[in-house]
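About this split. The held-out portion is used to measure sequence recovery: a designer receives only the structure tokens and must propose an amino acid at every position. Recovery is the fraction of positions where the proposal matches the reference. Here is one held-out target exactly as it appears in the evaluation file.
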């Protein structure tokens, strides 16, 4: 399975829409989605899952969050190919290393937002129903939606299953890093009305396999989600992760609580964080 980038020129910038396709071949090309220089501590992020190729569980395609034992939350573009066609659910497996029962499940239903735009990242959100339940030890371990509207300066923590090196990832580990939401000039290319962003500094960034990863507020349990990682904009025409000057964009979840509830049958009171 190859991982490709879609190249979209906007205001003379190269937009990295972290994008995966099924294809023949024997290598991974580097894409714009993992905490390139993050820390590892999976116990803080027991709800984070790897969405992998059904042909190779170690080939991490995207990251996601368990919002119940039967549903994960992730990015829509994880399930759409470069021609905007849906990728078959049979192509994926979901791995949850902290599930107390089964740890691997197929996907039975994929629901992407009907107004998702691959070309600008608007409404980049999806839920997937698991064929086999992946229960966590406690109800409060599942990801919850934080409904306060994020503002510039808010500290966020991003956690995912993607690469920390170009040839290295481990579905058993979760890497994370912190940053701050910005409305500065570094985020002035904000063409996505449903997105928020943070600038990349000191190699702390997402990379291949982090699409759909949770963006959380900095709380003791790190499970209060404000976003789903979507894409990176870089001023340089290269495929490297973690470059100063890059900007990571994520889908703001405050806009989607009702959509998530309607497409999972999870009641809003069971989705929203108690803060």
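Reference sequence for scoring:
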């Amino acid at each position: 399975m190859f991982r490709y980038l879609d190249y979209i020129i906007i205001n003379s910038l190269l937009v990295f829409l972290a994008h995966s396709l099924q294809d023949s071949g024997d290598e991974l090309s580097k894409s714009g989605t993992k905490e390139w220089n993050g820390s590892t501590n999976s116990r803080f992020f027991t709800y984070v899952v790897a969405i992998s190729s059904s042909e190779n569980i170690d080939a991490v395609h995207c990251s996601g969050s368990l919002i119940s034992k039967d549903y994960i939350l992730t990015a829509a573009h994880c399930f759409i190919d470069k021609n905007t066609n849906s990728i078959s659910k049979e192509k994926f497996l979901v791995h949850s290393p902290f599930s107390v029962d089964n740890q691997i499940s197929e996907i039975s239903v994929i629901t992407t937002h009907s107004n998702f735009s691959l070309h600008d990242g608007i409404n980049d959100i999806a839920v997937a129903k698991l064929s086999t339940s992946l229960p966590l030890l406690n109800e409060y371990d599942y990801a919850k939606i934080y409904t306060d509207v994020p503002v510039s300066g808010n500290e966020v923590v991003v956690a995912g299953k993607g690469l920390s090196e170009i040839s290295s990832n481990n579905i058993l580990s979760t890497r994370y890093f912190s940053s701050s939401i910005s409305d500065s000039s570094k985020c002035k290319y904000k063409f996505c009305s449903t997105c928020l962003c943070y600038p990349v500094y000191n190699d702390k960034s997402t990379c291949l396999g982090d699409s759909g990863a949770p963006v959380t507020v900095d709380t003791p349990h790190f499970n209060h989600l404000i976003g789903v990682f979507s894409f990176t904009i870089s001023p340089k025409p290269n495929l490297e992760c973690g470059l100063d000057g890059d900007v990571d964009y994520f889908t703001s979840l405050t806009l989607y609580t009702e959509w998530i509830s309607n497409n999972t049958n999870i009641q809003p009171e069971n989705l929203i964080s108690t803060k």
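Annotator remark: The longest helix spans residues 257-262.
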